[in-house]
Amino acid sequence: MSQQDNFFGGFLLGTLVGGVVGGVVGVLATTKLNKQQDADEGKAPFSRLEGKSSKKKRLSANPQNMEVARRSLEDKIAQLNDAIDDVRQNLGGSNGNADASANNPVGDRRP
User: CB 3.0-4.6 Å disulfide test: which of 5, 43, 76, 85 passes with 47?
Assistant: First the structure.
């Protein structure tokens, strides 16, 4: 009985300690990445938040950029559809052969 109690207590303690350690590591890694991004952009900390709202304003203020992006996405979708059709055709031939062999087992020798 005491081994079960020790296991449960150890498991609970390990879960709590692991959660705290993981949270601290996550916060430290995030702040380090944010500082590196701010240094790369040459901006002061938290100015990136202001940049997001101005970026949204620029995108909504310029419908030409939106049209170019829409056309680019339509082209990519068309390319993906073509690729999917090619794969379906290639697999259709191999699946057709597999279905025929499944319907006609090797032991069955019908003319």
Answer: 43
Residue pLDDT, tens place only, 51-98: 555 555 555 557 788 889 999 999 999 999 999 999 999 888 665 554
Nearest 5°: phi and psi at 106? Answer: -65, -40
Burial 32-57 (b: 16+ CB within 10 A, else e): eeeeeeeeeeeeeeeeeeeeeeeeee
Distance CA 106, CA 109 (A): 7
pTM above threshold 0.70 = no
Residue recorded with tokens 């191999």: 94
Helices in the chain by DSSP H: which ranges?
Answer: 2-41, 47-61, 63-103
